[in-house]
Specification:
By secondary structure, the protein is an alpha+beta fold. The protein has two domains: 2-153, no CATH class; 158-329, Multidrug efflux transporter AcrB transmembrane fold (Up-down Bundle). The chain is built from twelve helices and five strands. Strand 3 and strand 4 (120-129) form a beta hairpin. It is rod-shaped, with a radius of gyration of 33 Å. The protein starts with a strand and ends with a helix.
């Protein structure tokens, strides 16, 4: 998780510091595994001023005298501790130039935690969540309490946002895409029959993929959703290649002395010619997706599983539905 605060540079940094204070408490309670913030090394001027006010409220000169008495009672060399005691007696009132003190490291810290996007300053804190649902929920609530305007990003947030978006928009997108593809296929293939066979192959592929994902417990998220257009394109190509091969067979005339070639024989010839080609293409693509199954990151593993299954289901659907449909229409 990472928080983004928008606004002027000083305001954004002060808001990020407030979130960092909340993260420090969360880390102490064990609700997060850790965090990286600019506040520890380069706090904003407002944060430094607030910390100095909190320090002054402690009445350091009085505590300095108590510390001196305790040092004497325990046998410490008071003269050796004189600089520390002097700091208690006369606390600094000058805001330190933290960037000058850090030197070259300040540029790296600024580049990691501060950026400008379309005129807005973005101050970023990096959080390492525990991965426990209850702890992550408490951490998120504390972060939002520290800054109600904070923006929390990261894979879990993207996954939740994608899930909401898919459930709301996917049916409409699918309907529009189906209509556009149907019109394009009708214009390209010239025959309603051929267009219906291609669409049927795609529908069977997606239905089989969805059922298998449900049985395997694989959910749609930001990674594997990107594979869906690729799967549709591959299946469309496979079905259209098979149809094109059949059309070429329909255009060929029988050799002299031979009888009329039946539609079934033309389909078989087209399959014999084109099926090995589309199969080899599909299997090499499936192998590429299958390699992602070895990744340690779950998002890429899901992408590999969806891509592998989708390519294989699309290949089987095209090789079965197109020939069977041509025979049925004939």
């Amino acid at each position: 998780m990472g928080g983004r605060q928008h606004g002027p540079r000083s305001v954004a940094r002060a808001r990020a510091d407030a979130v960092a204070d909340a993260l420090d408490v969360l880390e102490g309670r064990g609700d997060i595994a850790g965090f990286d913030a600019l506040s520890a090394a380069l706090p904003a001027d407002a944060t430094i001023a607030a910390r100095l006010r909190a320090r002054d409220a402690l009445d350091l000169p009085t505590h300095g005298k108590e510390l001196e008495r305790a040092l004497i009672e325990t046998g410490f060399d008071v003269e050796a501790c004189a600089p520390a005691l002097a700091a208690f007696a006369h606390p600094t009132v000058v805001v330190p130039d933290t960037e000058a003190e850090i030197g070259d490291g300040a540029a790296f810290l600024r580049a990691r935690h501060i950026a400008v996007d379309q005129g807005d300053t973005l101050a970023v804190n990096y959080v390492r969540p525990k991965g426990d649902a209850a702890a992550d929920a408490r951490a998120l609530a504390a972060i939002r309490a520290a800054d109600p305007g904070v923006v929390v990003t990261g894979y879990p947030a993207l996954e939740a946002a994608l899930k909401d978006t898919l459930s709301h928009d996917l049916p409409r997108i699918a309907f529009v895409a189906f209509v556009v593809v149907a019109i394009a296929l009708r214009a390209a293939l010239k025959r309603l029959r051929d267009g219906l066979l291609v669409l049927a192959s795609v529908i069977v592929e997606i239905a089989a993929l969805g059922m298998t994902m449900r049985l395997a417990g694989i959910h749609w998220h930001v990674y594997n959703a990107l594979v869906l257009p690729v799967l549709l394109g591959i299946t469309l190509d496979e079905a259209m290649f098979l149809l094109h091969a059949v059309r070429e067979g329909e255009g060929e005339k029988s050799s002299p002395g031979e009888g009329t070639v039946s539609v079934s024989e033309k389909i078989d010839a087209a399959l014999e010619k084109q099926a090995p080609l589309v199969t080899s293409t599909a299997l090499t693509t499936a192998a590429g997706f299958g390699a992602l199954l070895t990744c340690s990151f779950g998002g890429l593993r899901d992408m590999g599983a969806v891509g592998l299954l989708g390519v294989l289901f699309g290949l089987v659907a095209a090789l079965i539905i197109v020939p069977a449909g041509l025979r049925a229409f004939d």
